[in-house]
Amino acid sequence: MHLKQFSAVLLCLAVLLFARAASAGSLPDFTDLAASCGPAVVNINTERSAGMNGPEDMFGDMFRNMPPGFERFFRFGPRQGRRGPARKQKSLGSGFLISADGYIVTNNHVVANADVIRVTLDEKTYKGEPIKAKLVGSDEETDLALLKIDIKQNLPFLKFGNSDELKVGEWLLAIGNPFGLDHSVTAGILSAKGRRINAGAFDNFLQTDASINPGNSGGPLINMKGEVIGINTAIIASGQGIGFAIPSNMANEIIDQVKGGKKVSRGWLGIGIQDVDSNTAKALGLDEPKGALVGSVQKDQPADKAGIKDGDVIVAIDGKDVEDTADLLRTIARHQPGTEVKVTVWRDGSKKDFTVKLGDRSENLTADNAIRGHSGDASTAEATLGLTLRPLRAEEAKALKIEQGGLVIVSIEDDKPASSADLHVDDVILKANMKTVKTMADLAKVVKEEGLKRGAIILQINRRGDQLFRTVSLEKK
């Protein structure tokens, strides 16, 4: 080999080795991050009384609020027998300390309906037995809960970071207890922001490819600064490398309210809304498909009192553009009831401003909540109809000549059982399986006691004075 050829080969090898070294050097080292953050992550064990009537009793909470294909990271203990009396049902999850005096953040579905909650601390922090924890408060709509343990020592804790500042592609670290394996650490990147997976009204998840599994629920998703920027909550059951976390900015707002002893309160407009597609935008003369189209306005609710009408498109709140229905819900929910906001709508080819004094969202119950209830019955929890309802008002009953009362459909959630049953917003549900329903509790009882067993429920409705029957299938697909 000639000297020139030999030199060229050496040069190529040098370039290759330099490239590999540079590539290796660009990968982050998570050892210090894992060591500093790990002690603040805890293992959460719960017990509750539950009858064993079928697989839905075992796994019901794992799928709470989740659309097909998605799972909460909740893990129950082994099943013992097909049928029998009430027994203790055990579960595993994760959480993390947010203060030296023992406040712990986790998912609501990890601790919901628990009779006993126990927390196991990192062995380097505390080598004693698991500690009983008190549930300080929770918020089912965002799937967050705050616990408190009493221990005579200062504890390591994590701080929330700013999830709004995250950029897709950033490195992240997940710590938790997947499948009961204590303090497992996995790394990945932020895959996407603002993911909507039909998990509820406040759908706004961070997506990551950090490996997370059942048992990780409630654990922290950490940035390279050691800050919590998400709470791991859901996965796609059939996929790999796709996990979802509640953004820290949303969580921080809720936790602050709960920790301060306040009820979680959210603003309420009292309207039914839908996204604006390109055809709708063209028909209404909008430059682009943005905003939230008002499909219905509830009488005597805040939007109605302010003068907002169905057919309006809400394009801004307090001067800030509204992207879609999810953006509108989140924006209004951040305001306290009683707050006045400026709502800008598109009507008849121009923008109009209205001042709306917000109501309280918590006073407007949904059928989702009623059917899931607070009884701890997991099989009932899976039978969510996907309807937002309110009681029929006296003046409406008089106008429709309804004497018995009923429930008015405010909105219908996509990809839920009721969406395939030809039900419309403003339909009035009069009976369920021929039983009169005046309250959400009435409907929940029929769904639980009859609908789930039969796999369907028949609803008698009043639609603008006409009485019709519609059947909702509750069969699992």
Question: What are the salient characteristics of this protein?
Answer:
477 residues, alpha+beta, Thrombin, subunit H, Pdz3 Domain, 4 domains, 8-stranded antiparallel sheet, 6-stranded antiparallel β-barrel, 29 strands, globular
Task: Describe the SSE topology.
Layout: H1 3-26, H2 31-37, E1 41-50, H3 55-59, E2 70-72, E3 75-76, E4 87-97, E5 103-106, H4 108-111, E6 116-120, E7 131-132, E8 134-139, E9 144-148, E10 171-176, E11 184-195, E12 205-208, E13 220-222, E14 228-236, E15 243-247, H5 248-259, E16 267-268, E17 271-275, H6 278-284, E18 292-297, H7 302-306, E19 313-317, E20 320-321, H8 325-333, E21 340-347, E22 350-357, E23 359-360, H9 367-372, H10 378-381, E24 387-391, H11 394-400, E25 407-412, E26 428-432, E27 435-436, H12 440-454, E28 456-463, E29 466-473
Oligomer: single chain
Question: Helix count, per DSSP?
Answer: 12
Rg, Å, rounded: 26 Å
Q: What does the average pLDDT come to?
A: 79
Structure class: alpha+beta
Strand fraction? 25-35%
Specify the CATH class of the largest domain: Mainly Beta
